[in-house]
Design goal:
Belongs to the membrane fusion protein (MFP) (TC 8.A.1) family. It comes from Methylomonas defluvii. This is Efflux RND transporter periplasmic adaptor subunit. The protein has a six-stranded antiparallel barrel with strand order 2-8-11-10-9-12. Helices cover about 25% and strands about 35% of the residues. A hairpin with a 7-residue loop joins strand 9 and strand 10. Among the domains are: about 100 residues, Beta Barrel (Elongation Factor Tu (Ef-tu), domain 3), CATH 2.40.30.170; about 90 residues. The relative contact order is 0.21. The protein has about 300 residues and is of the alpha+beta class. Helix 1 runs antiparallel to helix 3 and helix 2 packs antiparallel against helix 3.
C-alpha cells in the first residue's frame, strides 16, 4: 500500500500564536479482526450445512452437522445404562435383608440356640451383600462416565462457530469427507482491525491508546473512531516506515472489511516560548554631568 500523508497546522489563540495542532492523514486498510478456517476435530462425512455464505453467526452456533448415527446410538445406550438404578436397588435390598437376618441370629446366639457355624454364615452374608452393593455403585459411576464420553463423541460431530462473525466461504458440501480439510471460512467483523504503514517522521508521535478519526471508502462519507492498539517498535530501513494497528468497534456490523480508508491523527505540539526583552541598562552611582552652556 503506497504511503500518502499530509501535515496541516491550525493556529490557536489571538495575536502571537500560543500553540498549534499538527494533523496527519495516512492511507489505511480496514480488515476483519481475524479469519478462521473451520475444520472438524474428527474424521467424518458432512450430513448438513446449517449456514450459507454471507450469513452472520454467533459464537457457539451450530454451523455443520457430520453423519453421527453410530455415535447417537452409543449415546442412547449409555444414557439408558446410566439412568438405570435397578441393580443398585437390588443390592440394597439384599444388604438390608442380610442385616435383619444377622440381627435375629445374634439374639439367638445369646441363648446358645444356634451354632457358631450358623453365626459365621449370617455375618458373612452381610459382608458379601455390602461388597456387592459397592460393586453396583461403582458400575453406576462407570455408566455415568461412559455417558459423558458418548455425549462428547456425539457433540464433536456438530461443528460450532468459535467466534461471532460472518461466513466468508464454504469448502465442503453434504456427502463429502472432511478429513484433513477445512469446512468453511469465517471472519470476525466486530471489532474490525485498521492497519497502516507510517513514515518514520511519525515515529514517537503515534502512541497506543490514541483516538483516531477513520474515513473508510465504504460506506461512503462515514466517519468513525478507532483506537491505536499496537505500534511496531522496529522501523523498516528499506522503506523508512513502521506499522500501526488500530481496533475499530463495529457492534451493528454496519462497517465492512477489506476497504481502503484514511486515518487522521492529531498531534498537540507545545506552544513556542518567547524570551522577554531585558530592561534598559541604567548605570548606578555615577555623578551627573552638568550641561555645557555656550555663550
Amino acid at each position: 500500500m503506497p504511503i500518502r500523508h499530509h501535515f496541516f497546522c491550525a493556529l490557536l489563540g489571538p495575536g502571537l500564536f500560543s500553540g498549534a495542532v499538527l494533523a496527519a492523514n495516512l492511507d489505511c486498510m480496514v480488515k476483519p479482526e481475524m479469519y478462521v478456517e473451520l475444520s472438524s476435530p474428527v474424521a467424518g462425512t458432512v450430513a448438513a450445512l446449517l449456514v450459507d455464505k454471507g450469513d452472520h453467526v454467533a459464537k457457539g452456533q451450530p454451523l455443520a452437522q457430520l453423519e453421527a448415527s453410530v455415535e447417537l446410538a452409543k449415546f442412547n445406550q449409555a444414557k439408558a445404562d446410566a439412568e438405570s438404578s435397578s441393580e443398585v436397588r437390588n443390592q440394597k435390598v439384599k444388604l438390608e435383608y442380610a442385616t435383619r437376618n444377622r440381627t435375629r441370629y445374634r439374639s439367638l446366639a445369646t441363648t446358645n440356640v444356634i451354632s457358631q457355624i450358623e453365626k459365621d454364615k449370617v455375618e458373612t452374608e452381610v459382608v458379601l451383600a455390602g461388597i456387592e452393593l459397592k460393586k453396583a455403585e461403582e458400575r453406576k459411576k462407570s455408566a455415568m462416565l461412559a455417558l459423558e464420553m458418548a455425549k462428547a463423541q456425539l457433540e464433536v460431530k456438530t461443528i460450532k462457530s468459535p467466534i461471532d462473525g460472518i461466513v466468508i466461504d464454504r469448502y465442503a458440501m453434504p456427502g463429502e469427507s472432511v478429513s484433513d480439510r477445512a469446512i468453511m471460512k469465517l471472519a470476525q467483523v466486530n471489532p474490525l482491525r485498521v492497519e497502516l504503514i507510517a513514515p518514520t517522521e511519525y515515529f514517537g508521535l503515534i502512541q497506543p491508546g490514541m483516538d483516531v478519526e477513520v474515513r473508510p471508502e465504504l460506506p461512503a462519507k462515514k466517519v468513525v473512531r478507532a483506537t491505536v492498539t499496537k505500534v511496531d517498535q522496529l522501523i523498516d530501513p528499506a522503506s523508512g516506515s513502521f506499522t500501526v494497528r488500530m481496533t475499530l468497534p463495529n457492534p451493528s456490523d454496519e462497517l465492512i472489511g477489506g476497504v481502503n480508508c484514511i486515518a487522521t491523527f492529531d498531534f498537540a505540539t507545545p506552544a513556542p516560548t518567547t524570551t522577554p526583552s531585558p530592561p534598559p541598562f541604567v548605570p548606578q552611582n555615577v555623578a551627573p554631568v552638568s550641561p555645557v552652556i555656550k555663550r
